[in-house]
């Protein structure tokens, strides 16, 4: 399995915009990926976390989880976002932590389809929160993986 630092470097090399977000793939337990990003390079004119940065980071988190799930299945794949939805709940005046997850059943179904067909979709759910634990945004994404 690819380590999280290597995955982060792969993203920064392939997508120049992500270099400015200063994100980190912080933790992965097989079903949940945690992504963090500081406020400083991502603030808006009000001094809060820019909605556009949140959107990019949530999309990236879903891509990362789907990429890692494909690797876990033994079938590394190219992954693209197909559909996303995002709801902003509260302004964020500090750093962002995103937890994007799937359950065991979803991971198994994804791995089986990827193995059989060479392609599979995965729906992920994420929430962004601040240091106080308050949820500031909710996200759903559908990703397509192809071997």
Oligomer: single chain
DSSP summary: helix tally: 3
Order of helices and strands: HEEHEEHEE
What is the overall pLDDT average? Answer: 96
Radius of gyration: 15 Å
Q: Low-confidence parts, pLDDT < 50 over ≥5 residues?
A: none
Helical content (DSSP H or I, runs of 4+): 25-40%
**Within the largest sheet, what's the order of strands?**
1-2-4-5-6-3
Q: How many extended strands?
A: 6
Q: Strand portion, in percent?
A: 25-35%
Distance between the termini: 16 Å
Please give the largest β-sheet: 6 strands, antiparallel
Strand-pairing-aware structural class = alpha+beta
What overall geometry do the principal axes of the alpha carbons give? globular
List the helices and strands and how they pair.
Elements: H1 4-14, E1 24-28, E2 32-37, H2 51-72, E3 78-88, E4 96-101, H3 104-117, E5 119-129, E6 135-146
Antiparallel strand pairs: 1-2, 2-4, 3-6, 4-5, 5-6
Structure, described:
Helix content is 32%, strand content 35%. With 147 residues, it is of the alpha+beta class. Strand 1 and strand 2 form a beta hairpin.
Question: What's the short story on this structure?
Answer:
It is built from three helices and six strands, in the order αββαββαββ.
Which characteristics define this entry?
alpha+beta, globular, 147 residues, six-stranded antiparallel sheet, 3 helices
């Amino acid at each position: 399995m690819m380590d999280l630092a290597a995955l982060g470097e792969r993203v920064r090399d392939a997508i120049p915009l992500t270099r400015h977000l200063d994100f980190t793939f912080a933790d992965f337990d097989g079903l949940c990926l945690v992504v963090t990003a500081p406020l400083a390079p991502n603030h808006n004119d009000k001094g809060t976390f820019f909605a556009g940065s949140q959107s990019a980071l949530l999309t990236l988190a879903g891509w990362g989880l789907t990429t890692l799930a494909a690797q876990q299945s033994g079938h590394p794949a190219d992954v693209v976002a197909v559909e996303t939805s995002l709801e902003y709940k509260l302004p964020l005046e500090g750093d962002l932590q995103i937890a994007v997850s799937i359950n065991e059943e979803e991971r198994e179904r994804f791995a089986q389809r990827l193995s059989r067909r060479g392609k599979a979709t995965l729906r992920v759910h994420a929430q962004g929160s601040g240091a106080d634990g308050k949820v500031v945004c909710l996200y759903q994404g559908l990703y397509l993986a192809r071997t």
